[in-house]
From TrEMBL, chain A:
Gene for this chain: DCAF13
The keyword Nucleus appears for this protein: yes
A biological-process GO annotation: maturation of SSU-rRNA from tricistronic rRNA transcript (SSU-rRNA, 5.8S rRNA, LSU-rRNA)
Pathway: Protein modification; protein ubiquitination
Protein's UniProt name: DDB1- and CUL4-associated factor 13
GO CC annotations on file: Cul4-RING E3 ubiquitin ligase complex; small-subunit processome
PROSITE patterns hit by this protein: WD_REPEATS_1, WD_REPEATS_2, WD_REPEATS_REGION
Start and end residues of each Sof1-like protein domain: 354-440
Phylogenetic lineage: Eukaryota, Metazoa, Chordata, Craniata, Vertebrata
Swiss-Prot/TrEMBL keywords: Nucleus, Repeat, Ribonucleoprotein, Ribosome biogenesis, rRNA processing, Ubl conjugation pathway, WD repeat
Annotated family: Belongs to the WD repeat DCAF13/WDSOF1 family.
Amino acid sequence: MRVKVLSRNPDDYVRETKLDLQRVPRNYDPALHPFEVAREYTRALNATKLERVFAKPFLSSLDGHRDGVNCMAKHPKSLSTVLSGACDGEVKIWNLTRRQCIRTIQAHEGFVRGMCARFCGTSFFTVGDDKTVKQWKMESPEYGEEEEPIHTILGKTVYTGIDHHWKEPVFATCGHQVDIWDEQRTSPKCSLTWGFDSISSVKFNPIETYLLGSCASDRNIVLYDMRKSTPLKKVILNMRTNTLCWNPMEAFIFTAANEDYNLYTFDMRFLESPVMVHMDHVSAVLDVDYSPTGKEFVSASFDKSIRIFPVDKGHSREVYHTKRMQHVITVKWTSDNKYILCGSDEMNIRLWKANASEKLGVLAPREKAAMNYNQKLKEKFQFHPQIRRIAQHRHLPKSIYCQIKEQRIMREARRRKELNRRKHSKPGSVPLVPERKKHIVAVVK
Amino acid sequence: MLWAVVAPPAPCPANLRRPRRARAVPESPGTPSEAGTVVSVPRSLPGPPRSPPVLPPRRRTRCHATRTSQERALRQGARARRDTRWRFAAVPACGAMAEEEDLAAAAAGSGSESEEGEDGERRHRQLLEAISALSGRKRRKLAERSEASGQVSEFNVTCKGAGEKLVLSELLQPIHPKSTLGSVRKELARVKRKAAVELPLSKEEAKRVVREAAYVTTSKDVGKWQQVVLQNRRAEQLVFPLRQDIATVTPLERATSAWKARTPLEQEIFGLLHKTQQPITDPLLTAEEMASVQAMSLEEARHRRAELQKARAVQSYYEAKARRAKRIKSKKYHRMLKKSRRRQALKEFEQLHKSDPAAALARLEELEQLRMQERMSLKHQSKGKWARSRAIMAKYDLEARKAMQEQLARNKELMQKVRVEPPEEEPCELPEGDTPALPVPTGASAANPWMLGKPNGPATEPEAQEGPRDDTVPDAVENKDEMEEEELSEEEALLQDFEQKRRERTGILQGHSEEHGADETEPGAEQPRDSPVPPACSEELGDSPVPSVCAEELVSAGLELPPQAQEQLLLSEQLHHVQTMEDMENLAKEEFVEEQEKLVAPRAGKQAQQQEAGRAGDRHTKKTTTKRKMISLEAVLDGKPQEMDCPSLPVVLEEEEGGMEQRGMITEAFAGDDVVADFRREKRKAEEAAKPRPVNLVLPGWGEWGGTGLKPSTRKIKRFLIKPPPAPPRKDRHLPHVILSEKRNIHAAAHQVSELPFPFEQHQQFEQSMRTPVGSTWNTQRAFQKLTAPRVITRTGHIIQPISAEDVPDTAPGSGARLGGEAMPGRKAVLRGKAVPKGKAVPKGKAVEGKAAGGKAQPQHRRAR
């Protein structure tokens, strides 16, 4: 007689080593899991809470400068190296892994206005208030050798900014005009002008490397083409633009940091209106830098905070501040998309995580899977009020908080006034100007 | 036309109008006005007045007509320059024009009788003026102007056509084509065809044009990234850095060719390598390997390899087995092993004897030698230490006795001078065919064929087990097969023995402590393992209670059990083993009876009663019934859910034996609370609460006496108790086990999305996206990984360079080829409709109704028990 018994192949349930996880056979029939939504919701809520609990973005502060940090530059080949220039003309090179200054140079008299590293990472350039452009070696001098620049170019006017070409030995400075220099020569290859004003910053496009963008103090942003040595177009905004940054993944997109507390992302082909207006700061935006993935950017503001904006969102996803951080003058996003560096008035450079709650270090595969899952859950349930409330909660210093409130009131009042005006005047006489168009004064061909 | 602007010499419209006005307005009180006030004609003017403003244009056209007629010849030439020409020709034509006008005026005048007098006077004046103009007063008249002119000199001198050019070709126009000047004309025409160089633009404008052109070309250049950018924005997953460095392995020959041995050590190594013909260059096989490769076909090689593998596996298996066997401490086992070896050797020897007598003889000699040695040594006499100890022990121990007997037998055997004698220690290989089940199967694994090398043999017959104990006495090697089997089952028999002994002990124990309920189960649990026992054990253990139970059980087969036994009925453990179909049928009968009992039980049975019944006989009966019970198909299939008197009982899946047991336990545990009744009560309450209540507007004391003890009249109550319309039927009225609350749950609302979030267009989309779970609890591992794949992957410590043309394949920079449209390298741009809201791309629909996260879904909540 045959007796049927339940029997299973041990291969299906016996683990190979005792360190393995127990294999749990599952039935995925949805009819058997009626509470999936509720369970996932709970998980999402927990993930959100944990994210907030673990959000400790501040990593360290690099101190050593004796004046406010005015400019910074990333090393193009080394992630652990960063350069900074201060308002007393001092340039420091930092090692981020050791969090130490590895070299100090008295580069200029007066401010170091701008600095940039050469694309190969062997040398870097600085410009200062002493009307000079200096090229320095990246590695420190040998024992007994003098700390001297490789080249020094004496100019007629003060240079306010510098940027290096991404592929060729060419760099651009700005001041009264945009000068494009060959590294080998002491006079500019060509000078690009359009009107007369002091230009505060110039940036090479990282993808179409012959393109340049600059912003001047007569409130305009000018684009140049290096090949034709001609300006291309000028867009005039309501207020002055402090600096701009090109998107490293999208050739025609750049973002301008404006004095009117906003950032404007432009498509250079359609300058009539910005693609996106990013508003959240409560004081002038002083610097902006794109993440190397081109999905987000970080902005430094006079309101003593830095904010991270997604490129396609009008508001920031993150705000970083500390009690001691003063007006942030310069900010950089490291090339591995992990960290953010900001230099501020009170002489410190701060290192932040780009993703506040990210766990640093090597992750086990299970950790990684859990992280991805949590991320997905947060994304899925982001519209639920409880989760959104937790996810969006940030602590702000009182000054910023109050200013935000104040500005909200002002904006509301302005809006109301406009509404009233429209209501009480002839239809069509008070046109509805979209927010994107409001800030553009003109586009000059 | 310019000629209209320049005042014609003689007939100025202002001059003409003035006298006419003077004549036409005598009746009117107004005084003759100046030229400037011409337009204001008094209303009291009788008859249809000829409107004064009409006149000058008419005249003008007329004048134009005459002029054109005059100059028809001129006009045939260059039409483009007509105005200039006119200016040029105007001066000489002036006088003639005036005359012509007069004529025309006369013709017009004759047509209308009423204006005759007026016209006559006017014509007269015109004539006078014309004459005066001819007489040289022309210049003075000219200075009298009414319209703006560019050329006015302070001396009232106008130079007609001052800015005009005199074009030679026009002068030559009237020349007859045949004349000698024809060649000149041709040349002139040729000169005219040459376009003049335009003036250079101003510097500013020139720059602007350059800028515009540059901007257009540059934006077009940049625009070639459009596709790439869009694709990246839409991509499900982006992996950075975009350019993944693929670790390329440089071929060995390249590495070696670039490298040369310099140091003596290196040279030595190289020399050695070359000596052994170790190939450094391409084919990477030694000469021998090459030869072998050539010698053997692929099939053959594969075959051989498989063989080798098999051999290796077998070898390792035997090694393992030998090791295992060696570790076994059981003497009995080793004895058996020895015996079997002996037998084996004997068999072999016989075979050898048949096949090769010479070898067999030699072997025999050897064996004889061995035997002799054995005999001499007298190892098997009962003189040794061990033998003596056995002799002492033999009084008490069966084993020892047996061993002694064995030894004696052996001794006898050896002392006899026999021709054929199996040697004791014969080196022979391990038996291959009959592998005794060395690892004694444990209880758990015995049930599981997977755990064993081969399935366990069927349980031996009880007779066979009883037998070996007696047969172990070594009589002779008469029946080898039988012997072998005996050997095989010996160990099992031994086990059985132990088992029995233990059972005896437990039986006794049971007899002593009948009160313990736990003991009941023990024999039952053992039951399946020691299957063959019952008949034998009932003989042996006649005094113990268990067999009496067995006996009783047989008696009580057809009896109906008292209702107190219902709890134990759920269990179905028995003592005896059911092996044959007849047994099964018997069981089925019993089953039926039990079934009936079970059905009867709930009606009558209560635990309290059961407690009361404490008699031993009862317990016995209970035991028997539990033990007799067994799974049968009918029991499983026909087992109806127990019918409760409540219609709203939640359906419980009828389970097998184990489930019933479980259920029994649960019933016992939750005997006190009647969940179903509770639920019904709750539902009734909910229904009551949902009913609309009548509004009581009765004011006691209004319109009648009020006070303590006084009630408002029924009439009033009837009037002022307002009954609301009946509520719509409840949704759960046909669902007895569900309460559907249609109230909006405020606590849940705090967790729900109140308005449709941005990328979604319909709330169904959103709900669908919510309903699809992503966790590994609900998805297979693969699906889970896919669903939770991060949008952006970066590698720690890698610098992400800006995108460049090299990252985009099929693009020659500068060749004008469009970037994008193609798949990117290192980028899983798997387009799964990601651009659309997530809800659209939901893979699977679920039949389950999502509860919690419906968008602005209807606030419906289901409470199911």
